[in-house]
Amino acid sequence: MNPTDFPISPPRAWVEIDTAALVENLAFAHKASGCGIMAVVKAGAYGHGLEMISRMLESAGVEFLGVANIGEARRIREAGVSSRIYLLGATWEAEREEIVARNVTPCVSSVEEAAEFNAIAKRRGLKLAVHIAVDTGMGRGGFVAEGIVENFAKLAAMDSLEIEGIASHLSSADEDEEFTWRQIRSFEETVEKLGGAERFRWRHLSNSAGILGYPVGCRNLARPGLMLYGISPIPAYQQALKNVMTLKSRVTLVRTLPAGHGVSYGRSYVTTRPTRIATVGIGYGDGYPRHVSGNGAEVFIRGAKHPVIGRVTMDQIMVELPDDSDVRCGDEVELFGTHIPVANVAAQADTIAWEILTGITPRVQRIHLP
User: What's the rounded mean pLDDT across residues 146-171?
Assistant: First the structure.
């Protein structure tokens, strides 16, 4: 059969990405921080589509794009993006040649890591820009305060490296104000020990929670991630941000089940009366979390919220409808977005919004709206 003889079906599950909202959130991050912006696009731009979002952010004039690994950097470059790319974590030996060859900016966490970057850059006749990572309490990477002056002197002697930046990361800016201020003071003291603000072109510490909750101090570059995508890690600022991602599916079946009928695996939900039920074509195989089962999750259909009942399955969920509901097969269903905040879904799944966004699987089509 000729494939042009029949239409291509619309997606069963999809996300709509509001790119205008993304740009508004970026402007807010810039205003709130008073800094240059390193837009964090790791994990597929938090599930929003790495290449498309990177191109948009480049057009908006960000100073850096922040990624987790060289594979993400490679995809961005191959998509035609020329903005500076920054690696947010430590690297291992097999990655470093490509990092230098692609002129990606790494943060360095040890003298050994820096020495290898220096050797590769020298061999290629290049001078590689690097940022020094300082561990002020995150415990994930970077130079600890003890001995940092001595280590910095060793790095400064590496003539194929340009130490243009210094960075740290806030571990608890949305939870622990006292500890966050300790981290900020530690970072500022370290900058002073190493020559002061004028020694470094870029000084950065603040993630989204840091931008929203704390003044700039000695920093001149901010690293918004979650807030770009419309979610505030500090609830008081949520109204200032625009929702970017909406997860949708469709009703695939509507019927009435008799009293005493189980719904989904394990019969965790059993009807107590004749009940109108809609089946929706999405499940944990698409990234809608199984752990919301039985925890008050809702969806939005035809202007109203309806409860998710029974266990979320790999490809389908079930929703209870009023007896007089006009919901029918083919209706759009919002799983989260404008009417169902993703933060609510995360709370019902006993997780965080970051995990929900990055967990949307590849079989869910991304549709970028202008």
Answer: 96
CA distance 294 to 273: 19
Burial of 198 (0-12, 13-18, 19+ CB in 10 A): exposed
Question: Average of pLDDT values for 247-265?
Answer: 98
Q: Taking the complete model, does pTM exceed 0.85, yes or no?
A: yes
Catalytic residues: 42, 265
Name the CA radius of gyration of the chain, rounded: 24
- pLDDT score for 1: 57
Q: How many CB atoms lie within 10 A of CB 1?
A: 5
Going by pLDDT thresholds of 50, 70 and 90, the confidence category of residue 20 is very high
Contact in structure between 335 and 312 (CB atoms under 8 Å): no
Nearest to 310 by CA among 325, 322, 323, 293: 293
Give the chain's domains with CATH numbers.
19-231 (3.20.20.10), 245-369 (2.40.37.10)
